Structure formats: C-alpha cells, structure tokens
Amino acid sequence: MFAITFHHLIVGLSTGTATLACASALGAWVSTYFVGGSKARGHLDKTAYIAGVAAIPLIFLSVLSGTYAMSDPGADAMSYNKFLFTGLTIGFLVSMLLGRWRFGPAIWLDSRLGLLQMVCAAGALASITVLGSIGAKMSLGESTLDILSFWPSFDESIVVNQWFSIAMFALGLGAMVAAFMLGPKTERLPE
Amino acid sequence: MRGRLLVLATIAAMLLATQGTVANPGGEGDGNRDFTCGGSCHGDPGLSAPSSATITISSSNTAFTGTAYQFDTMIEIEEISHSRLLGVFLLSSTNGNGDHPEDHGWNIIQDPSGTSSNYVEVIVPNSGSVSLSWVLNAPETTGDVDLLVAIHHGAGYPGDVAYLGVSDTHSVEVNPVPANLPGFAPDWTAPYYRVTGDTSPVSLMTQNTTDIVVDWKLEGESLSHTAIVEAGAENEWLVQLPATMGDGRIVYRVTTSNGEFDVVQPWLTMGTTPPEFDGSLWGARAQGFAGAFMIIALMVNLQGMLQPARRKDDLDQTAEVEAADPSTAEAVMPEPAPAPAAPEPTEAEGTADEAETTYSERLVKYDEYPDLLWDPVEEEWVDDPEAGGGQ
Predict the structure, then answer these.
(1) Is a pLDDT exceeding 80 seen at residue A66?
(2) Alpha-carbon gap, residue A177 to B294, rounded angstroms
(3) Distances (CA, A) of B38 to B48, B97, B119, B163
(4) Which of A84, A120, A161 sits opposite B288 (nearest CB)?
(5) From the CA of A87, how many Å to the nearest CA of chain B?
(6) d(CA A61, CA B55)
(7) Cβ neighbours for A180, distance < 8 A, ≥ 6 positions apart
(8) What is the DSSP letter of A170?
(9) How do strand B129-137 and strand B68-76 relate by DSSP bridges?
(10) Left if phi > 0, otherwise alpha if psi is -120 to 50, otherwise beta: which for A178?
C-alpha cells in the first residue's frame, strides 16, 4: 500500500522534473535563433542541466516504487512497455546531460551539437509523455492522449526471450563503454 | 447581521453548486445481482418511472430436472438514453434479495454475453429490439419455478428519472427426468472463451450419454458444420472446434444421445481472447537498460563526430615529426641556440604585434628540418612561414 502512495508521489516529481529539463533544453536550443537570447539561454541551460541531473535518480525511484506497487510487474504488456520507455527516457536524458557536461554551456551555439541536444531532449520528452499515458491507462483506464486518433493503446509489446534480453543488455553496455573508450576525444567548447 | 447573511449565502451557494444525482449512466457492468432495491435510483418511486418497453418471453414452460433449458426473451424499447445502454436481469423473484435464479435451483450455463451472470448490459440497436438468451440447468427438484426479466435504463434528456420494467412471470414446470435422459452434467459450465489460435479440444461433461454430436458455426453464419468428437474420461467428451482469431465467436450445439433418447441442447457461444503475455520482470529490466545503453552509445559517438574541429591540433606538427624520426625528435634533440635578445618595443609599434613578435622570435630553426621551427616553450614543431608551411 505504501509503495502505491509513494509511487504516486515520486512519479509526479520525476515526470515534472524531467519535463522541466526537456522543455528548458528545447527552449535553450530555440533561443539560439533569436538575437539577444543569450541571457535566456543561460537560464534555460542551467535549468535543463540541474533538472536533468535531478530527474535521473527520481526516475529510478519511480521504477522501484512502481515495481513494488504491482503484484506482478512486467507480466502484462503495459507494465512491460513502461520498462522499455523508461529505458528510452533514461538513455535520451543521460545523453543530453553528457553532451552538456562534455562540451559546456556553449554547446547550444554549435549548430550540429545543439541540434543533437535538441533531439535528445525531444526524445526524452516524447518517452516521458508515453510513460505518463501508459500510467494513466493503468490507473484510470484512459489517457488524455487517446483523443489522438493515431495514439496507440500500448496493450501490446515487443517481448524477446529473457536470455536474448540479457544479451542485448550486454551488447548495449559494451557499445556504451566502447563509445567512451574508443570514440573521438572531446573538449569543452570555449564560451 | 452581515456575518449571518454571509454564512447563509455561502451555504446556499454550496447547495446550489451540488449536482443532481445521475445514478450510473455508464452502467455497472455484467454481474450477478438481485432485483433493483427500493433505495436505488431505479427502484425508488420518487426517482424512477415505469419503462414503456415491451418484454416478451418465448421459452418452453416445461423442463426436466438437471437438464439444459434455454430461456429466450425479446425486449422492444423506443425511448432510451443516448448511450442506448440497457440493463437486463434474469430473476426468479422481485423481492430485492434472493432473486437470482441460482437461489431457486437453477444453474446458469451461459448468459447472452457468454459468461454465466444473471445481469447483462447490452446496447440496444437502432431498431429498438433486442433478443437475449440464457442457457440454464433446470433445478434438481420438481415443481413450478418462476423466471422473469427485469430491465432498467435511462432516457435521453437531463433531469429525467430512471426507468424500470418487469416482465410477466414465466412459470416453468420442472418435471422429473425421464429415465436415462441424456444431457449435460449438472455442474458443467460452458467455456466462454478460448485463446486466439488455440486448437486444443473443448471438454464437455455429460450424464446418461453414450454418444454426442456437435454442430458448430461462426456467429452470424447460417450453415453449420459437424465437429470431430473423441471420448475423454468418464462422461467427458473432447470436441475439436477450429481455432478462432481476433474477435471471432463460435457457436456450437450438442446433441446428446444414449440410444433411447436424442436431446438437442441449446446453442452455446464461445469467444476469443488474446494470448497471455509472456514477459517477465527481469526481461523487461534487461530490455529497458539495453535500450538506454544503446541510445547513450549512439549519442556519445555522434557528439564526438559532430564536435567542431580543433584548430590548435591542426597546426601542431609534433606528432608527425616524432612519427617520422622519433630518435631525432626526442632522444637526440639538439640544444637550441640561445635566442637573440629581443629588441625593446617602441611605442610606435604598439602592443598589437607584441605577442606575435615574441612568439616568432622564440622559434628556433634547425637545418635538419628546413620547413619547420621548434617552439621551446610549447615543446612542439610548427610550420615555418618563410618556408611556405602553414599557408
């Protein structure tokens, strides 16, 4: 019972914080197209960075509390999809934070890196939206986004064999380590 | 005085803000329920009104104890709510408790929705007429048993009352089973769904039966087909019905025989459900993390590829020199000649060129590398502008 209440609390925090991070990042990217947007960009960049850093542990807490709130998590398509989309959210959000950490606040001024940051923010925001929609369907039976004709019901999922999932996990981990160890060296962009 | 008026106005506003009761306009779902009680919206005389619907029952008035009995009713209704939702009860009394047919010895094998409830909710088609059938096992005791149909629904405009209708009592005379009459086992309930694509046989339990014939057809079809039947355990029959997909519903009818009697049972319906989900918690976790790692790997690589080129590195030729002759570059590095004293800058030259001049003067030329100069401060080789490098 406590897990359900805690999940409701922490989901609100994590969703709000992550949405703030993504929306601020998108705002920082848009500000580069406006003359005199540097001051706003500075604020939005800091907000996105801080909120993104705060969202990561909150998302993990949401997953944990959600897991304990269900009697059989992962055994139905909707909860399974929540795990998959949580992975996508964390992937996009961490990528956005890594970009900001490696290249500094001037990353938005570089056209290609700024665009990549925007893609990460948009991906994370889309994944969070899907997560919220699935959560609403699980708890309320409906989602506001159902009014969209193309919005899927998320009652089906792509399930692969558990050993294949573990192999994908190892492959993903290896790819990430290789990207850091063997990828091009980066340096902070001058402000 | 003003305070009292304020309190009264607040209370009045709160009372006016409350909504009128609208019961459950979306229905309550199928289930096992007694007749609408007097305290409910549909049962309270102050909140309800008699329905104008016509309820007709067209079933036999005789049944044999413990054998299947089909109860058919047709409801014609003109005035109904916008949702056209109609709740229909199959009852044995209208007392408000103990009304369920099972309280009077009946056993519901199948209701119109395919489950085994005495209350179902249906959407009335535009024709205003709906036909429903329940398949029951008759009570084990002989005598007259009543069955009746009750309905409730709403109307099409706000503020309207809830409507309630009750059919005439349909009396069924339950007679003793003729000796050795074949039929379904009293405790058997028809399966009301199968998993999509499931081809496993359907199990039927009978009594006093030596042979059965099963006809099946898809719901809505007119032609029926004969199914293959195998004998299972004692009084059990395994019927091979084709697999159904999607929302497909199959209806089948069993004829039970024992050489003395051939009894044609009512049509039974079986729907289709999607297959069970075979995901697991650890599989979901592994897949979720795999997705996160792969996205991070992709984005980190893209960040490295898309970063702006570093101009300082482009000028630095140290690596090339060392690669060409590392022993010369590192081990046998000649001592640079003392740099000539820098002339004092004059005020006319200003400070703009001072840094560049200082930088140029500290560069040392070696005959071994005619196109390059050695920077002793940064300890790197750079192109000699006078030799054409770096242009």
Answers:
(1) yes
(2) 10
(3) 10, 11, 18, 13
(4) A84
(5) 4
(6) 57
(7) B300
(8) H
(9) antiparallel
(10) alpha
- Smallest CA–CA distance, residue B81 to chain A, in Å, is 23
Q: Using H for helix, E for strand and C for coil, what is the string for B76-122?
A: ECCCCCCCCEEEEEEECCCCCCCCCHHHHCCEEEECCCCCCCCEEEE
d(CA B257, CA B265): 11
What is the C-alpha R_g of chain A? 18
Q: Does A74 touch chain B if contact means CB atoms closer than 8 Å?
A: yes
pLDDT digits (tens, 9 = 90+) for B179-236: 788 888 888 888 888 888 888 899 999 988 999 999 999 887 778 899 999 988 888 9
pLDDT interval class at B20 (50, 70, 90): low
Angle between helices A111-140 and B281-306 (to 10 degrees): 160
Partner residues linked to B166 by β-bridges: B150
* 3-state SS class at B255: strand
Residue A160 three-state SS: coil
Q: Are B282 and A183 a contacting pair at CB < 8 A?
A: no
pLDDT at B3 exceeding the cut of 90? no
Determine the pLDDT at residue A178: 93
pLDDT one-digit tens code per residue, B78-128 = 888 888 889 999 999 888 888 899 999 999 988 888 888 999 999 998 888
Tokens of B170: 């349909």
Q: Between the CA atoms of B89, B94, B96 and B99, what dihedral angle is there, to the nearest 10 degrees? A: -60
Q: Which tokens sit at B368?
A: 């071994």
Q: Which chain A residues contact residue B294 at CB under 8 A?
A: 91, 171-172, 175-176
- Report the residue of chain B nearest A186, measured CA to CA: B304
Q: Where do we find the tokens 């025989």?
A: B257
Provide the pLDDT for residue B260. 83
Query: Which strand ranges, in their side-by-side order, compose the sheet holding B129-137?
Result: B54-57, B68-76, B129-137, B107-110
Angle, alpha carbons A153-A155-A158 (nearest 5°): 115
